[in-house]
Structures are given as C-alpha cells and as structure tokens.
Amino acid sequence: MPGGAAILIDACGVAQRPAPTTSRCRPAYLARVCFAGRRPICRLTHSSNAAEVLRNLRHRQMEASTLRKDFRRAEPADLDALVALEAGFPDADRFSRRAWARVLRGNSAVLVAPPPQETPPQETSPPTGNAPSLGGAIAMLYRRGARVGRIYSLAVAPAARGRGLALDLLAAAEADAMARGCDRARLEVRGTNAPAIALYGRAGYRVIERIPAYYADGGDALRMEKKLPVGKEAIR
C-alpha cells in the first residue's frame, strides 16, 4: 500500500522485522493484533501512523497490566457501598448518594476493589441495603475534549489500609486516563489532610494551586497535578 512500508511491532513496542505490504491491507485496519505466538504482534501498514498506533497499544497494555485482576468497574448496584466507603470522612468532604449516582451515570471511570479476603465481613463497615462491601474505590471524571482527568474521590476501607491499595487505585485510574488521551491527572485535597497530601506526593502529584474556602465549612484545598506520559514517553 502506498504511504509507507509496513512494520511489525510487538506488545512491548519493539520493532520485530520488516513486513511486506499486501493489497489486502486497508487503512481501516491499521493495527491487527495476532495472539498466536507468545507475544501479541501488531501489524502497522502506515509508518507515519506508527507512533499513534504504538501509543494506543501501549495505553491498552498499561490499562490491562495496571488494573489489578481484582479491580472492576463500578456498577449501579455498588451505589450504597460507595456511599458507605466515605462514612469515616468529615461531613464537608463526603459525597451524597445523589452525587455518586450522577458520577456513575456521567463521563467517568469508577474503579472498585473488593474487601480483603482474610477480613471477616462483620469487621468491615457494612453498606446499607444489599450491596456488597468494598475495599476501596476511585472515581475519575472527564470532560469532553479535555486532556485532564480529575480524581473526584479516592477512598479505602479501614480494614484494607496499609496494603498499598490507594496507590494501586491511583495507578489504575491514571492508566484509564492515558487510554483516553489525557496527559494530566488533577485532584483537590483538604489543605490540612497531611496523610493524603503525602500519599499523592509519593504518587508523583505536585501542588499547583491553593484554593481558599473550597470546602463547605470554609476549609482551603490544595490542587495537585501529575503529568502523565503520552506519545513517545508512554511507549518507552
């Protein structure tokens, strides 16, 4: 096909060998993944589009590898459990059931983790209704056309803390944002919440702004942001 020789790229973004272009290749099929071998091979028919296809492939790979197997996307049935996760938050920091319902319906990614298996169910904070309990959850909001994902909520149940779950949830949400083409992740945190600020700092977030009277009780917030790898940086 005119426009550039085809190349073979494996799932790790490594060029394997030149591949002859055939008339059967069409622009609509720029990337075709074959799982016959040990590693998926992706055939690119336009060298000018290689960087874009590689980026998309890498984002999918990052999302698949970063999203722990016990994580899943939240469903409407998780609504009560999501509300219960924030039961220990200050009233001004807690989101209402209506707010969570709006997030689940909106342009968002809500990832949830199960409670620790070794923790008896009666030792966790039971949600209302018949919804299952959760070990943690993170919500990332998106705006159409924007390249910034906003972390709306991150909560970990007391019984699941101290296991690195918060950092794992952050990484999974960031992978989702990168897969959607975002180059930054952003959040607001109460200025007096030292443990949360330290957690986000370890994850690579930096304070970019202080927002006076952000919370309903008059408390200030720190806006923090992290640059996400895109393009060539994402496929190294």
Describe the protein in words:
By secondary structure, the chain is an alpha+beta fold. The protein folds into two domains: 6-66, no CATH class; 72-235, Gcn5-related N-acetyltransferase (GNAT) (Aminopeptidase). Helices cover 24% and strands 26% of the residues. It contains five helices and eleven strands; from the N terminus they run ββββαβααβββαβαββ. The protein has helices at 50-66, 79-85, 97-105, 165-179, 194-202; strands at 6-10, 15-19, 31-34, 41-44, 72-73, 108-113, 136-141, 148-156, 184-190, 206-211, 221-227. It has a seven-stranded mixed beta sheet with strand order 5-6-7-8-9-11-10, with helices on both faces. β8 (148-156), α4 and β9 form a beta-alpha-beta unit. The longest helix is centred in the first third of the chain and has 17 residues, at 50-66. The protein is globular. It starts with 5 loop residues before the first strand and ends in a 9-residue tail after the last strand. Residues 1-48, 61-66, 119-131 and 232-236 have low confidence and may be disordered.
Which characteristics define this entry?
236 residues; alpha+beta; Aminopeptidase; 2 domains; seven-stranded mixed beta sheet; four-stranded antiparallel beta sheet; 11 strands; 26% strand; globular; disordered N terminus; disordered C terminus
Q: Outline, from the CA principal axes?
A: globular
* CATH topology heading of the largest domain: Aminopeptidase
Please identify the top-level CATH class of the largest domain. Alpha Beta
**Average pLDDT for all residues:** 74
Low-confidence stretches: 1-48, 61-66, 119-131, 232-236
How would you name the CATH homologous superfamily of the largest domain?
A: Gcn5-related N-acetyltransferase (GNAT)
CATH architecture of the largest domain: 3-Layer(aba) Sandwich
Rg over alpha carbons: 21 Å
Helix content: 10-25%
The percentage of residues in β strands lies in: 25-35%
Structural class based on helices, strands and sheet pairing: alpha+beta
* Largest sheet report: 7 strands, mixed
Strand order of the largest sheet: 5-6-7-8-9-11-10
**DSSP strand tally:** 11
Q: How many H/I helices?
A: 5
